[in-house]
Amino acid sequence: MERCRIWWPRQQRQPELDSVSARYVLFGWLFPRAGSVDIVVAAFVSEGEILRSFPSLDAFQTIILTSNKRMPITLQESAAFTILGDCVVHLPRDFEACCVQQKYQLLRTKWECDCSVLDGFLDTCKKSVVKGGNWVHFCCKPEKSFKCNVNQIPMLHHLYLDDQNVEINHCHVILYDIPIAGRNHFSLGDDAPHNLKSPLKKPNWIYNLQKKPPALDLDLIVLALNCSNAARLPVAWKTANNSSAAHFLLATVFDALVQLVQHFTGIVVASLSTVVYIFIKLFRKCLSHVSVYSMLQKVFRHSGKNMHLRCCQILYWPVSLQETSVSSSVNVEYAHKAAIKKHALWSNIIMDLLMGFILGITLLLNLETICSWTFSLLHYMTDAVLRSGCVWLMGVPAGFKLNTELAELLGMISLNAIQIYSTLWFIVGGFLRHIIQGLAFSGILLGFTVPVSFFIDIIQLVTLHVTMLQWLISLIYSTQIQTVTSLWRLFRGRKWNPLRQRLDSYDYTVEQHVVGSLLFTPVLLLLPTASIFYIFFSILSITIICLCIVLEIAICIIHCTPYAALILWVTRRQRFPAGLLFLPVSLSSVSTDEDGALPVEHCSTSGSGENKTEEHIHVHSVPLVSELNCNYNTLAQVIGPHYEKVFNGIALPFCKQLAHGILRGARIPTTLHLPSSPYPWLHIGIREYWMLCRGATKQGRN
To answer: Which helix (H) or strand (E) holds 43?
Structure first.
């Protein structure tokens, strides 16, 4: 065996003992590979604590098997959680004394046979494990000091694999912090080499290189590290209970009071949520019986969609807090993702309500100013833009000589439509104060996205005359374009085949050519006039559509922003790892020779009072020591996938459809068609919903 990697928990360092040798039993996983072996140490407990905590070998083995069954299936299929071996903090004095008198090979045999005998039923357990195939023995030298403030580093003394003593040429000790739910975990990240995009053309040697297995497969190692805390608790839970009786009594009373307060809080929250559930259900039922409900849904489609989403989010908050899997209690990485997913819904609701409260208060405090600005803006758009623009188009716009009769006809139609619509909105303007107050209260009660979506519908209603005029003139423009195109095909002797979607040759008669020539000239001469009006109203329509789309994108960003992940990224970046980082530990020897050998204490020989001799024996070579750290995701890497999931594949089709509609006079899209609400209406009983809310408050506390 050439290489051995030892993954050692940094937070589980052995206590420094002065003279008494301490022996610990190691628990974890062992991953043998071709030419290398990985030893993941999850925990180690002193043999005395194990003998005091467990009455027999059967009880001890039962709790180990229980711990293994809690692990993920992938980890169980690769390696079982079991006893790895033992570790001695201080070498026995007789071993160091014998190092001066005997040879190294004899010492090693004696150490393996005699010095690693465990106490009680642990020795029987060790013999069964060794007979099964694997056993690892470590020793720690406290005489070594390290610049990383780690007092003791494990050194591999011998390793049994398949009931054979294996020679290790290179040993690498990797110190890691035990992943804890809510604090940190490890991840290989999304920028792993197998996820990188490859170029289109690659040489043959790259294909041959990709067929070879990776030199260092860390997927299972990372999975074991993330499960190490859950594997450690069932073994060492009895050893952690060292508190006194008085302290235990005070803690029990305090926990009882906390549970009592949480019990009443859960009842109050569940009751309030049930009242809101009843109100939303009754409001929806009453609204569905209104005869104009379907028409209102079409007119106010943006606000209706966002109100539906907000109501469903309020109803589904207890469902999102329910525990869906037991894997989150074992794998810390999965627990982190499950916690973010669990708290994403209520954090989104709270942030939306907070922004809506700020918007509503701002509208109420500046009501008169907003009303005056709105009237000024409407007058400016009607008089300075629409009416002045139509009069300008009826003359000589930008020096173009247009057809006077057609320009006057289109201009008068546009001016009459603008005048009629401005008169109607002058009547509705008396309710502007109430409309703004409605927007403010909807923002306070339902959040920021509801008044903004309602504002989009109001913009579309206010500019409905511009949309209708653009549609009418685009119909004239597209008809002229199609006529000129058909007549041009007539002159070329071609005809469009709608079945095969291609141009075919066709023999037209002389009468058809004459009629085509008579039609082609007036249609072609009238095309610039219609084009000027079409360009003017298309610019206005596109401006309105872009404004609505910007507001729609803002609403979608508010909905899909992971506020829980964003807050965690700001406060605790350790929960967002993006790859492993191995930092070498600088070693500074206190009393080592030039070759790096570990020194042995001075030993006096028995007999004739000879002088003390000092020898340095290369019993153990100092292993390579590294610290396992992580790179962390940036803010764009945390929130980017959520935006990409919503907006991916939407912008380019919208731009193509918009450009195609403008150039050909076809229908212009007015919305991005973003994904709708993923939540259907909740149809459960009142008692069942109350119980669901009550259970959600317990899950939220946990």
So the answer is: strand 36-46
Residue entry with tokens 């489609």: 301
Residues 6+ apart with CB under 8 A from 200: none
Average pLDDT of span 150-163:
70
Q: Residue 355: exposed, middle, or buried by beta-carbon count in 10 A (0-12, 13-18, 19+)?
A: middle
Cβ atoms of residues 356 and 446 within 8 Å: yes
Looking at the predicted structure, is the pLDDT value of residue 313 above 50? Answer: yes
Contact between 189 and 578 (Cβ < 8 Å): yes
Evaluate whether 483 touches 523 at the Cβ level (below 8 Å): yes
Q: Outline where DSSP puts E strands in 75-231.
A: 82-88, 135-140, 145-146, 154-161, 164-166, 170-176
Report the distance separating Cα 28 and Cα 135, nearest Å: 12
Compute CA distances 395 → 229, 419, 474, whole Å: 81, 20, 20
Alpha carbon distance, N-terminus to C-terminus of the chain: 46
How do the domains of the chain map onto residue ranges? 3-242+577-632, 363-565
| CB neighbours of residue 529 within 10 Å | 24
Global pTM value: 0.77
CA-wise closest residue to 172 among 221, 103, 228? 221
Kindly tell me if the per-residue pLDDT of 209 is higher than 50.
yes
Q: Which two tokens stand for residue 535?
A: 């360009």
Span 167-195, mean pLDDT?
A: 76
